[in-house]
Predict the 3D structure of the following.
Amino acid sequence: MKKTLSFLLLLSGLFCSDQAFAQLINIDYVDPWSLKTFRGEAVAGTSGDYWNMVTDYSGGAVLNLKDSQENTTTVSISTQVQMAPNPFYSGSGFSGTTNENLMNSFIFSNDGATRSITFGGLNADSSYVLYLYTQGDDLSSGDKLGVSVNSVSYVTGQSDGSASSFIVNQNYLQIDALTDSAGNLVINYWRVAGQANINGIQLSSPIPEPASIVLLGFGGIAVAMLKRRTELVA
């Protein structure tokens, strides 16, 4: 009995790892001239994480994505842009930091139109967390990005191109989002002031994956065995 319970607890510990409870997908909008790749953590993630490079913007091309551990997923992304990512026109506070290659290019919109970024292939009617990174170069200070997800709008504070760390609601937004019945998640974005810049996106699922269901099953078995043992002793 003790050996069986110990085995169940060991399996429970394995399934309780962070990977069992979240999937992280990273997107880096890379300018097609420099193709500077980025690996690592931003607000979410860990050192060495994989980032999908988006470089094809012709007609909102669809890109199949890998997760942060470079595993193939069912998730895709399509991005509408006014112009392809541009390298910094000038300098940036992130130059020389570990996040330089993430923040050194960005898609942007300055014509007042609303455009969309669409994720497909996600779990239907499920919760996710979005991290949107938005900082241009040091000539872009004063820009404001507007975003709408699930009919809720968000606006950043004025950007500061000299910022060298992540500041919530200034150079990144954290948004709780819900997919539709087809597993799609649409982000609408536009210029509020100056131009709308988006350097990259992280998409995280906080919902327990099937492993947690297995964990609950182990817990139920353990409780049943303990109850049975108590009845036998009584």
The first strand starts at residue 23 and ends at 29.
